[in-house]
Amino acid sequence: MRNIFKYITETQLWKSIFRHDYEDTPRNRALQILGNVFLHLHPARITRLGVKLKHTWCMGGITFFLFIILTVTGVLLMFYYRPTVADAYWDMKDLEFTVRFGLLLRNIHRWAGHLMVITIMLHMFRVFMTGSYKPPREFNWVLGVVLLVLTLLLSFTGYLLPWDQLGFWAITVGTNMARAAPVIGHEGPLGEIIGTTVYNDLRFALLGGSQVGANALLRAYVWHCIGIPIIAIVFMAVHFWRVRKDGGISGPL
Amino acid sequence: MENLLKIVSKPDNVAIIIMMVMVGFFVFFAFFQALKNDRKKASAKEEKNKLEKEKIHTWPYLARKEFLVAILVVVILLAWSIFVDAPLEEHSNPNLTPNPAKAPWYFLGLQELLVYFDPWIAGAIIPLLIIAGLMLIPYIDINPRGNGYFTFAERKFEILIFCFGFLVLWIFLIIIGVFMRGPGWLWFWPWQEWDPSRVVAEINVDLTQLIGVNSRSTPGFLIGGSVIILYFSVGMIMLYLYLRKKKPNLLHKLGLTRYLISSFLLWSMIGIAIKIIMKLTLNIKYIWVTPWFNI
To answer: Which ipTM value was assigned to this complex?
Structure first.
């Protein structure tokens, strides 16, 4: 048995994939992190405090993990969903009644989305309470606020997609705010200065029309599945990278 | 009571219950740790810092925790998804407006603000102020202490202000929006039946009408405008004088730009709370009525 294991681990194929062996040495512990593209987000060594759950609550990590879950379940849902007025709602029904594990898939996606909004708020709360936004981490806090807004927008655009009464009216109420924006909303103050009407204001840009309809559904879909995730991934990359560059996980100076 | 159960058992609102429990726990936990740290003697703190600054290998000490947390999250999500189904109501119908029509739960705090402000403030200005204010926190908070650990004693003011914003103006307003607002966005206590035909005779008045001046007349315009302008300018000047007397060093370090931005944000936050209380107790709709906008 041992010989077989040894034979396998010494083949060219194995060695080309795994660059270090598994013996428990300090060197291998470091290589385990450094030699893995996913794990090397971490430093090879970290302060004792940074490992403690009572210090970090793991909230940022959970938020990122939920984003991954949402990406995977979201892509799977995209196989069964068409963002058109004629199909969207009935595709949801199909997911519920004919697609195997379709309902479970949708449930996971929805609850993970809600949970992500909660965990990102708690992550921000923890970072504030430990004063971790203080120099040299000021800018990373700013990036975090952007990610918070993007998370809310992701959740908000996803709300419309089932095309049921709940989503339809939530998005109607939500985007009605946009028409009240000063200057760029047609019901907001000072709009007449640049000639804002119901057909060229901010709400029109969001919905692709003067009310929630086919264009709004398509726009919500594209923003939800492609636009905002790509922007969020870019910001996340910088956010995580800055954690390292700004001195690692926070702790007493 | 039946009504409360109906709201609570709405599938989307399970998330809000979870949020309330989690926020409650973590607020308690944060303050528990902060106060515990504050009670420690300086020498004990230093010893602990030294120990905690020591570096250990990420593999396995951190990586294993992360994997365990990931597994736990998956288990919780699976259980939640098996027991509670995501809501799917009837096919959307532009001709059938539900009453009340509510935004997604995390925006209900802003929707609740619509009771107290015109949409351009509640839906545009306040969200922008929240985002800008949050982003500015690291640049206006110049207190170097409390960087990287839980403490309350070393940064009381900052923590109180942030918790006021987060817990009262965000979480609490969301809870009101979810549980207390029924048909017509009227206030319903949890034990009251949501009656769609309920009529409430609300007599809204503008601030100047309390002293007998028509808010739409020129004097009303001038009085209302001066109330707003005086509120901000007097507030900012008084705070400035107070700080100059009590904490001149702080003011000097803060500088004029930082002072102006942070005191404006502070008074805006307090002003929102004042306006909410004025509306709830005195039914005051507008403080300042102009031909272009109303505040």
So the answer is: 0.94
